[in-house]
Automatic annotation (TrEMBL):
InterPro entries: I/U_nuclsd_hydro_CS, Inosine/uridine_hydrolase_dom, IUNH, Ribo_hydro-like. Keywords: Glycosidase, Hydrolase. This is Nucleoside hydrolase. It comes from Gracilibacillus salinarum. The keyword Hydrolase applies. One of its GO terms (molecular function) is hydrolase activity. Pfam families: IU_nuc_hydro (PF01156). The lineage of its organism: Bacteria, Bacillati, Bacillota, Bacilli, Bacillales. Residues 3-298 form the Inosine/uridine-preferring nucleoside hydrolase domain.
Amino acid sequence: MKVILDCDPGHDDAVAIILAASGISPLEIVGITTVAGNVQVEKNTLNALKVCDVIGLDHVPVVQGATRPLVKEAEIAEEIHGETGLDGPQLPNEPSRQAIDQHAVDFIIEKLLQADEPITLVPTGPLTNIALALVKEPKIKQNIQEIVLMGGGTFGNWTPAAEFNIYVDAEAAKIVFESGIPVRMFGLDVTHQVLATTETVDALRKMGNPVSGFVSDLLTFFIQAYQDHFDFPGGPIHDACTIIHLIDPDIFTFEHVHVAIETNGEHTYGMTVVDRLGVTGQEPNTYFATTLDHEKFWSVFKEAMVSYGER
Ligand code: BDR
Ligand code: CA
């Protein structure tokens, strides 16, 4: 299955990239596109390139995208991801290569128009690039298999009502959710069930391969940030859920529901309004992830990390 990873790495975005490129992944990564989100897009791009270096992913183009949301000013999440966006692990000072000389929106359009089979888009940051691509070239819709995204939820982590990725660019999210393309949504309701803990970190360290060691460093920082900021007993590896699902579609359960994006509310800007009881009578537009098989999730996660020691 061909995928484009549209991201803002970001600790959990980095874990998602690492899972997608692992030895057990059936995914062919067409490109990694970056967007302003956790930190400024330039930093997110550098992080994506450096993560590629750590895992030896040198053949996949990294492409920089939108520098800010469609309407609002940018907001960043330095308190969770640190000043670089990927604080914690030792990273190369400079990446071994640069992003390709194209805008991510044009890259996404070009790859979709040229595609000989539908491509799945996997956004794990604000939806700015995806919305811009849909607006610039609506013909791409027919070649999008599905949009498998991390964002939203029936509660928030940036405001009481809104999750970070959707809040940062709710106007973009509205375009995506109203596009008619099937959306599969991993929101906080499910991602908060997937907590990496100090046991996860220890198990990764014991695997003894450089990539599992790197992920263990990433998660150490991330767990501490969630402890400090939200008093959580672990770090929800939000973005990783999208890739674990694409590797094994039997792990998560979904409800097919209508999701509307709030772009006006005084207290609810950026909320994903999930109609779980069908009270609006609107046609479902989203597969909304609700639960997961924890044992299977962690077993796939572990296998993916072990595969880096077998290369
Ligand atoms: C989302 O926000 C970012 O901080 C994470 O990378 C994730 O995509 C969680 O709300
Ligand atoms: Ca992210």
